[in-house]
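hi! just following up on the protien thing from before. the input was this:
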Amino acid sequence: MTDRASPAVRVDGRNARAERSRAAIVEAHLALIGEGDLRPTGERIAERAGVSLRTLWTNFKDMETLVEASGEQVLRQQEAAHRPISRALPLAERVEAYCRQRARLLQLIAPAARAAQLREPVSAALRRKRLRHVDRVRAEVEELFADELDRAGAGREQLVHALVASSMWPSWSMLRDGLGLGVQQARAVMARTVAALLADPGPR
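and the predicted 3d structure came back as:
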């Protein structure tokens, strides 16, 4: 008797192969961006992933869906690299720990963030990802500096906005790419800014 796989097994096998192909394509896309190819073509992505161009577009209907999947992967990488910081630490230590972590995470996403700057004006997916990044940073700021924010009174929302803005990619890009600072120098500027904002959190 011929041993044939059941339809369910065949379907599971196809699904597993499709998932491997999708993962390889996303990995190839991010690898090319990391090497400085900020707008890789489908042909270059497929070649790097070791799949046919047809396989690429079978798994992703267009570049926008691939960009969205790659953005999700970057968010997962950030989440995995994030480490909680204790609210019990003195303010100076919280600021230092926060800025050290923000610098590390911003360096992690730097290639993807530079690529996103080129596509975001025409990419709804990238705009959604940016807003999710903002929400994550805002949530951390509100948790880690809750006591200082409570003392800000009517200026609380303004202070939150200032803290978030000073520790997001556009500010980091200005420090690193615009001013040409090294990572340690840029982190020190961020820490000085955050510390100054929190030193007198009263209303403005």
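The CA atoms of residues 79 and 105 lie 9 Å apart.
The radius of gyration is 21 Å.
cheers
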